[in-house]
Design goal:
Length: about 775
């Protein structure tokens, strides 16, 4: 070998043409005399026979090969690679099989994949059966200045792995320096990412698991799916782990797992509530960030994906050697049997590998330039996500990875739709957000994906990333303008009621174009990121100290009101006011046109103790507290929520499939949507611009656009909802004919127990007193001509 001085001279000569600094050059040259060969290495077994196999499908697929021999075909796209090794891991005799930092060890067998077809490295290994753990080592240039970061010392997770075995304790372990492609602790951090780390990472990283690809049976046929129309949907956002971790009726060994969510006690709550779909926070295999692990925390939400085909192993009760796949499917089947759809929150905008200083777990080592968006300085990543990297969705193989993953979850795992985190990042072409981008075009023409529910989080953190109302007709969107308007109204911060009127009636100003419908708007007051509903009326300031970031994390724009006292209090009047505000917010949400989304536990007063960013709180701060459901005040909130959802299901006027016109459709002048002042008169242009804290909304059930399944016209009752956010009562004059001859009280949020409200009849034209900060929901009783 040449001397270290000679190697440094060569490195400096090469650097001249690349414009590297002397500091960067010295760092790269130091690799030669540094840690090559040091650190724990996995014991190796002799190579095994590798047959040519096939380049498709990608990933590891168990099948019967030539001459009827059972085995597994492996295929990996690695465009810039010079060589690829398949690495098989088997338990060492006498070990416990944990491998990844556990007490025993795994024996590694390296098998070169010599077949290369269209940049796909492939081979068939006879005798490799389901349950086999594996990974890849990819050889190529280490040249961070051009974006090349190949490092065969790092074991890489197959991006198509259908199950992941993290090993004993590794899911919540640490990120040792060996899992980085560069020397993480290099003294000169500004160039640390250029110094290759040659220590073996196999003992510390998760492995893929070969899974038996059972053909989908009758349980996944479309006739078993609920197929709830968008307009009829009520979404319930929940966390698989957090929903059952404290559930007393779920067996302890099943809490926090897919099996726990499938347990009858969990499903029964969803059925009683009346929701039609659960939206699961990320269940793709994800990793924990180093900065959290160093503080003794972990990523709870899961927005840090590393395996787009694999159910997160830590949520499996039955094992992680492929058992998680069947357990997830059984969970989906149990929910479907209860009439509940399953929507996955998916994170295809970035991965857990972060930026140039992040770990090397999969795509970064397979082909960094091929998978990620890089800046002009190819050492750096384009970051439209705030998480260090952005997947380069314009690239055909990246687009294929995402769409293959989506189709897999639909066709083989049984899910019914997806909510796309930071969807604007996926819609970017080379820089700008483009609604004709390859990703959106592929989804629109895909015969599987265009049939499922597609929800966009319509923004990212890049320039021009806020795209609420801009996604094409197949898509619905999280409507954060709804969230802002409703919060502001009930805390008394809206200057007038113009924006509120749009939000209550389907946000036609945002979505009435291109054939879109009112259900393009997913209406929500709370979501996983931010205050819970209870905290929204209990805190005005975030309290994220437990995250260890000096309370700097989390939004400061909470639009909350604490009812005069910060935090929990024993003051009975304040507590009563807070519960009333909760009833107001829940009633507003479930009467609004569009698709309502609730967050798990909001229906029974879940609190996060003032945290509005509990992403790393895998503890009682985030887990649903089931004990509160037996407390009278919170039981009453649950009952009201279930009652409002049932009202919504019974009445098509509350879940319209077309926007209101606001015009009269008959000679009596009755409009499909009308707005009233407290004087009982219809709102004028001046009224919309005047300061107001009271708004009457009349929804006519006559002549609802569309027909039922038999072609008959759809007709329904008519309703009047009076929303009053002021701190003093107001006399509201109920509109007379043709709107109604009388009104029946259905909900009055000034009452703790709604059993006292229904049935009372109020005369049309009479003035009724609306309590301070309350909602009155009335059914219009028609006169002789009908209303």
């Amino acid at each position: 070998m040449s001397s270290a001085a000679e190697q440094e001279a060569v490195q400096r000569a090469r650097a001249v043409g690349r414009g590297r600094s002397a500091e960067e050059t010295t760092a790269s040259a130091a690799v030669a005399g540094r840690n090559g060969g040091r650190g724990a290495r996995t014991p190796q077994a002799p190579p095994r026979t590798v047959w040519p196999g096939a380049p498709t499908p990608l990933g590891a697929r168990f099948r019967v090969g030539p001459d009827g021999v059972a085995g597994t075909n492996f295929a990996l796209w690695a465009g810039g690679a010079e060589a690829v090794e398949l690495c098989l891991f088997d338990e060492e005799a006498g070990g416990d099989g944990a491998g990844n930092g556990g007490g025993g060890r795994l024996v590694e067998t390296r098998c070169p994949l010599t077949e290369l077809t269209h940049e796909i490295w492939h081979g068939f290994l006879p005798g490799v059966l389901p349950g086999q753990r594996y990974g890849f080592r990819v050889h190529g240039r280490w040249d961070p200045w051009t974006g090349a970061r190949f490092n065969p010392a790092k074991l890489l997770l197959d991006p198509y792995a259908r199950a992941v075995d993290a090993g004993a304790g590794n899911d919540y372990g640490t990120l040792p320096p060996e899992v980085y492609g560069h020397v993480r602790d290099w003294p000169q951090q500004q160039v640390a990412d250029t110094v290759r780390d040659d220590r073996d990472s196999a003992a510390y990283v998760p492995k893929g698991v070969v899974v038996h690809d059972d053909a989908p049976d009758d349980e996944w046929c479309d006739d078993r799916r609920p197929k709830t129309p968008w307009a009829d949907s009520v979404i319930y956002e929940l966390h698989v782990r957090g929903f059952t971790m404290r559930h007393p009726d779920v067996p302890a060994e099943l809490r926090g797992t897919y099996a726990g969510l499938a347990h009858p006690a969990a499903v029964e709550h969803l059925v009683r509530l009346g929701v039609t779909a659960v939206e699961l926070l990320p269940v793709h295999q994800f990793a924990h960030e180093d900065h959290l692990l160093r503080r003794g925390l972990r990523n709870y939400w899961g927005y840090n994906s590393i395996g787009y085909f694999a159910p997160h192993a830590a949520y499996a009760a039955g094992g992680t050697r492929g058992q998680q796949v069947g357990e997830f499917r059984r969970m989906v089947r149990a929910l479907h049997e209860a009439g509940i759809e399953v929507i996955l929150d998916v994170v295809y905008n970035h991965t857990a590998e972060a930026g140039e200083l992040g770990p090397m777990l999969s795509l970064k080592g397979i082909d960094n330039r091929g998978y990620y968006r890089l800046q002009g300085d190819a050492r750096r990543y384009a970051d439209y996500t705030g998480c260090g990297n952005t997947l380069h969705v314009v690239q055909p193989h990246v687009l294929r990875l995402i769409t293959d993953s989506l189709r897999y979850w639909v066709t083989e795992m049984g899910v019914d739709g997806f909510r796309f985190d930071l969807a604007a990042a996926l819609a970017r072409s080379f820089h700008d957000v483009d609604m004709l981008s390859p990703f959106l075009a592929v989804i629109a023409q895909d015969p599987v994906l265009r049939r499922v529910k597609l929800i966009a989080e319509p923004w990212d953190v890049g320039s021009g990333g806020y795209q609420v109302g801009a996604f094409p007709p197949l898509w619905t969107e999280w409507n954060d303008r709804y969230r802002g308007a409703v919060r502001d109204f009930w805390r008394g911060a809206l200057p007038d009621v113009r924006d509120l009127g749009y939000r209550l009636s389907g946000s036609s100003d945002l979505y009435a174009w291109g054939g879109r419908r009112p259900y393009a708007s997913v209406n929500f007051v709370t979501a996983h990121d931010g205050f819970t509903l209870r905290d929204l009326v209990t805190y005005e300031r975030k309290h994220n100290e437990a995250n260890g970031e000096g309370n700097r994390d989390g939004s400061d724009d909470n639009r909350s009101w604490n009812c005069g006292v910060e935090g929990e209090t024993a003051d009975a009047d304040v507590r009563a006011l807070r519960r009333r505000q909760l009833r107001n917010l829940m009633t507003t949400l479930l009467l609004s046109t569009g698709v309502p989304m609730l967050v798990a536990g909001d229906e029974m007063g879940r609190t996060q103790r003032g945290s509005n960013n509990a992403y790393c709180q895998d503890n009682e701060v985030s887990w649903v507290d089931w004990e509160v459901r037996d407390e009278p005040g919170w039981r009453a909130l649950f009952d009201l929520t279930a009652r409002l959802i049932a009202l919504r299901h019974r009445h098509p006027v509350l879940r319209r499939r077309a926007f209101f016109s606001g015009r009269a459709h008959s000679a009596d002048g009755l409009r499909d949507l009308a707005w009233f002042t407290a004087r009982g008169t219809e709102m004028t242009e001046a009224d919309w611009y005047a300061p107001a804290a009271t708004l009457g909304m009349y929804l006519s059930g006559r002549d609802i656009p569309g027909r039922d399944a038999r072609g008959a016209p759809v007709a329904d009752d008519s309703f009047l909802a009076v929303l009053h956010a002021a701190d003093r009562p107001v006399d509201f004059v109920l509109p007379g004919p043709p709107w109604a001859a009388a009104y029946e009280v259905l909900v009055d949020t000034c009452l703790e127990e709604q059993g006292e409200a229904p049935g009372a009849l109020l005369a049309a034209g009479a003035a009724v007193t609306i309590a301070a900060r309350s909602v009155l929901v009335l059914r219009a009783v028609p006169g002789e001509g009908g209303s």
